[in-house]
Every structure is written in structure tokens, then in C-alpha cells.
Write a structure and sequence with these properties.
This protein is an alpha/beta fold. It contains 21 helices and 13 strands. It has three domains: 215 residues, Vaccinia Virus protein VP39 (Rossmann fold), CATH 3.40.50; 128 residues; 153 residues, DNA Methylase, subunit A, domain 2 (DNA Methylase, Chain A, domain 2, Alpha-Beta Complex), CATH 3.90.120.10. It has a seven-stranded mixed sheet, sandwiched between helices. The relative contact order is 0.13.
């Protein structure tokens, strides 16, 4: 390969997190980071510690990528990479209190940043469900120009605001008027306190704990609700809720409390969603009350939005998209990521995603990733874990993967959560591959509705298989395959294929979350090497002399 073809390419990492994507790109030796954009201060600290960029090139707000000043400072950029959060898409909130999330705008900002920075290529990764049609944006007034300019398809959609049994005369007038919405909305702290109580309605013990915790606020709030003047249905239900709260704190009898406060809680959720619709300028065609209160809106597929805009025109990108399985690229983890890879049409008229080379039967396992750490004692103290412990040579039998990840004499982040007596009893009762549902009933009682508990909770990993998708394993309480303790941060990082020299910063839960949010570097590296093929070809063709007769 010519010297020109071996050039290093510049990257800008949007929504960088701890830097799993950047880590994989840098491992190729072919890339240099010009700037990273990440709002979480702990993830920023981790990124700066592990990547060679100046602090002035770490931006908190991705909106800064849209500024001419930033573009001028960064100069020519070869590749924009990043994984904008996806929690805000419409389907992700159907069972939540909110209709819309600011995360919707983050995907749009990613697209606009690519247009503005105009790199030779871009890489966007997200959850595998992104390919589904149910991942849609609600159309706002600001989208009108883009929809017309890029011919983005839209469809009718609905936002359910209120159940049919609580619909009342005049409700449409209220949700259509910003002033009326604000007039009837409670203060957020009052709502949150009552909502915590309502959410624990199926567990009397947790219900009473929540009431005791928020008693002072709820007592004052109950008085405000009772004295509130007016005959509006929302006010009337507020009085009923206030009286029910007062009765509970006088009698300590909770039998009818949750039914009494239910209408008010659901009415407040309606108002909150209506406010979000207004705040986000979502275009409502009409409201209907035939099957509960429904806002009729337009929506567009997230994928259509991205590909229509970034693939438009001769100066746009040739794009391929699809689901990549990390296990097929050498990760000991069955993590599925949706990837969009775009290269300028002037460089490539056909782009394909890389293909994994490892087939089932050859998949790397949890044992491959973490067995060599089995005899190294974890700590529950973050400061101690950040200092790390010196480790000797790898024990005989350590896998090739383990040896490749064991690239530091000091092992940091080998931190696990403290084990309570109840947790230890559960750990001992769960065998490899089992989870919370395998426990006897007497060990499930602390959960309000144990039957609805996800299969990933209290999951004991299987040594001779790849793990499932690594998330925040502290919240999920993943268990070591053979030890009666929670999986450590370092072990979770190993499953993600972060080398031991990559050190995570911040509080314990933040470190677990950073690991869970990351793209496995081994997958990022494979994509980066694949992308080099397109960019190197362009350079080779650019520098190939034209032979004349």
C-alpha cells in the first residue's frame, strides 16, 4: 500500500459516551480523534483519560457541532461517528408518562451535524430495533421544510392522552390551550411524590414506605388540593385525592387510597403529554374522544428521515444499513447493533456493511473473557478500584481473548456492588443460566410484581456461552458464573472487549452505565478497518498516475 493510502483519517465522535467507538477506531492505528461531543461529565472524564485529545476538543453540547466556528476550528473531517440516544422514539414511551423526549431531537442533530461538517463518511450505530417501522418521529412544524425538500414519507399516528373512563366535557379545550394546561398542572415535585405512591399500588409494604418518605410534602399538597376552588373535573378529582391522602395519614389505612388518587394521577399525565406536544411544536390535526382522548398527528420513520436526508443529491452519501451481531466479530456477547454506514457518492457508488467472520460453534465465551480474573478479589470501594491492583502473569489456560485484553500490569475497575444477606441468599440459589424467576417464592417478596420481572434480572452468566447484551449490570444484578457476587465493572468491560488499560471514571453506577452504553471496541475496529477500504481506494485512485501513450 502506498504512503498516501496509509494516511491517518480524522474522526469526530458525536454522543461519544466513554468512547467505545473511538477506542475501536484508534486500535486500527489509522485514525485520530479531532473532537468528541458528550454531555455526561463522568463519561467525558473517561473519554479524556483514554483518548489522546485536548480538553478543548471535548464538547458538552452536540449543538456546538452545528456552529460555523466549530467547523472552522476542526477543519476538514474524514469521518463522523456516533450513536445518538434512541429512548425518545414514539414506541419507546407508550408505557411511560411522557409522549415525547428530547432524545428525538438528538438524532436530528446527528443528521444535521453530518450535513454541516460534511465528512467523507459517517457511521451511526443504535439499538437493533431501530430498523422497526414503529421507531418514528412525531412531525413538528420545524420538520415541514425537510419533509418537502427530501420527500420524506409521513403517516397518520396517534398519541393516547387519557383513558376513556376519565374523559370529561371540555377536556379538548384544555389540552388545546397552553395557558389552561399550565393552570391545571401541579408542581413537578408534588406530582412526582404522588406518582411514586401510585406506582407502588400493587405492593402494600412499598406503598406505605413511599407514603412515609413523602409524608411532609404530601400532607401539605393534600391541603392545597382540598382548598383549591372551582368545579372543573380536574379540580374535583384533586379534592378527592387530597381528602384520601389526609384520611390515610390520620388512619394509616391504605385500602382505597390508590383508587382515589388514580384519576388525578392520570389527568396530570394527560396534561404533561399535552404540554410536551405544545413545547415540541408537534402538529395536531385534531383531538378525538371516541376511545379515550387521542391526539391525531403525523409521524415519519426514523430510518426514512436519516436516509432521505443524508442520501439526497449528488453530494450525498451511499448508505448501507443493517444489524451487526458483536459475537460474529469476536465479542463474547450476543449484542445486536443497528449500523448505518455512509460514504460520499463521489467516493463509492456501492457500500456494504462488514460481515462477521465467526460462526456459531466458534463464538467466544464468558469464560474466554473473564476466567483469568476469577481469583483476583474485587473491591466495593470506587477509590480503591480506581487505583487498581497489580496482577502477575496470566494463569495457564487463559484464552487468546483474555490475553489480548490483559494489556496492563494494573487492573482497575475490578469493582462490584456490596452483597446484602438477601442478595447472597439469592446468588446461592441461582445456577448458571438461571435468573430471578428460578428463585423460590420467599426470595422474591421484595419485588412488587415478581412475575413481571425481566429475565435479565439476577442472571447468573454461563461460562461456556457468550453473554447476552451487556447493559448496566449493576441494575440488572448480573451474577458471576461461579462466584457468589455481582459481576464487576472490569468483568463487564471485558465482555464488551475493552482492554484492561482502558480505565473508567466516576461513581460506581456511572461506570457500570458507561460500560453498558458502549459499543464493543472489537466491533468498532472491524467497522473501521472495513471503512478504510473505501477511503484508501479513493486516495489510491487520486494518486495513481495517468499513463499516456
Amino acid at each position: 500500500m502506498s504512503k498516501q493510502a496509509m494516511k491517518k483519517y480524522s474522526i469526530v465522535d458525536l454522543f461519544a459516551g466513554a468512547g467505545g467507538l473511538s477506542c475501536g477506531f484508534l486500535q486500527t492505528g489509522r485514525f485520530a480523534v479531532k473532537a468528541a461531543f458528550e454531555m455526561n461529565p463522568n463519561a467525558q472524564q473517561t473519554y479524556l483519560r483514554n483518548h489522546s485529545i485536548d480538553k478543548s476538543c471535548m464538547y458538552s453540547d452536540v449543538s456546538d457541532a452545528l456552529l460555523d466556528e466549530t467547523k472552522k476550528k476542526l477543519g476538514e473531517i474524514d469521518i463522523v461517528i456516533g450513536g445518538p440516544p434512541c429512548q425518545g422514539f414514539s414506541n419507546a414511551n407508550r408505557q411511560k408518562n411522557h409522549a415525547i423526549s428530547l432524545n428525538n431531537s438528538l438524532v436530528k442533530k446527528y443528521v444535521k451535524a453530518v450535513l454541516h461538517l460534511n465528512p467523507k463518511a459517517f457511521l451511526m450505530e443504535n439499538v437493533s430495533m431501530l430498523q422497526s417501522e414503529v421507531h418514528r418521529f412525531y412531525v413538528s412544524g420545524e420538520d415541514a421544510d425537510d419533509i418537502k425538500k427530501y420527500s420524506i414519507a409521513t403517516a397518520d399516528s396517534q398519541i393516547q392522552l387519557l383513558e376513556e373512563e376519565f374523559v370529561f366535557d371540555g377536556v379538548i379545550d384544555i389540552v388545546s390551550n397552553s395557558n389552561l394546561i399550565a393552570n391545571y398542572l401541579w408542581e413537578e415535585k408534588d406530582y412526582l411524590a404522588l406518582n411514586v405512591v401510585f406506582k407502588n399500588r400493587n405492593n402494600v409494604e412499598k406503598l406505605k414506605t413511599a407514603l412515609a418518605k413523602h409524608q411532609r410534602r404530601l400532607t401539605d399538597f393534600a391541603e392545597k388540593l382540598i382548598v383549591c376552588e372551582g368545579d372543573n373535573y380536574i379540580v374535583q378529582q384533586g379534592r378527592i385525592a387530597g381528602n384520601a391522602l389526609q384520611h390515610y395519614f390520620e388512619s394509616n389505612i391504605a385500602d382505597e387510597l390508590c383508587e382515589a388518587i388514580r384519576p388525578s394521577v392520570l389527568l396530570q399525565r394527560m396534561l404533561s403529554k399535552a404540554k410536551e406536544i405544545k413545547d415540541n411544536a408537534i402538529k395536531v390535526g385534531r383531538f378525538s374522544i371516541d376511545e379515550g382522548l387521542v391526539a391525531h398527528v403525523q409521524s415519519m420513520s426514523v430510518l426514512d428521515y436519516i436516509t432521505s436526508i443524508l442520501g439526497a443529491g449528488r453530494d450525498g452519501y451511499t448508505i448501507d444499513k443493517g444489524v451487526l451481531s458483536a459475537v460474529a466479530f469476536g465479542a463474547p456477547q450476543k449484542r445486536m447493533r443497528y449500523v448505518l454506514l455512509g460514504v460520499k457518492k463521489s467516493i463509492a457508488d456501492c457500500v456494504e456493511l462488514p460481515k462477521g467472520t465467526i460462526e456459531e460453534g466458534q463464538f467466544r465465551t464468558v469464560h474466554d473473557a473473564i476466567w483469568d480474573l476469577e481469583k483476583i478479589i474485587t473491591t466495593t470501594d470506587v477509590a480503591e478500584g480506581s487505583k487498581g491492583v497489580f496482577i502477575g502473569a496470566a494463569p495457564a489456560g487463559t484464552s487468546a481473548l483474555g490475553l489480548s485484553l490483559r494489556d496492563s500490569a494494573v487492573l482497575c475497575n475490578h469493582i462490584s456492588t456490596e452483597t446484602t444477606e438477601l442478595a447472597l441468599e439469592r446468588f446461592k440459589a441461582i445456577k448458571q443460566g438461571q435468573n430471578f424467576h428460578s428463585l423460590p417464592e420467599y426470595l422474591k417478596k421484595s419485588y412488587s410484581d415478581s412475575k413481571r420481572t425481566q429475565n435479565t434480572i439476577y442472571l447468573r452468566l454461563v461460562y461456556n456461552e457468550p453473554s447476552g447484551t451487556v447493559v448496566n449490570v449493576r441494575k440488572s444484578m448480573w451474577i458471576h458464573p461461579v462466584l457468589h457476587r455481582a459481576l464487576s465493572i472490569r468483568e463487564a468491560a471485558r465482555l464488551q472487549t475493552f482492554p484492561d488499560s482502558f480505565v473508567f471514571c466516576g461513581p460506581k453506577d456511572s461506570q457500570y452505565q458507561q460500560v453498558g452504553n458502549a459499543v464493543p471496541p472489537i466491533l468498532a475496529k472491524a467497522i473501521a478497518e472495513h471503512l478504510c477500504g473505501y477511503l484508501d481506494k479513493e486516495i489510491a485512485e487520486k494518486y495513481t498516475p495517468v499513463l499516456t501513450a
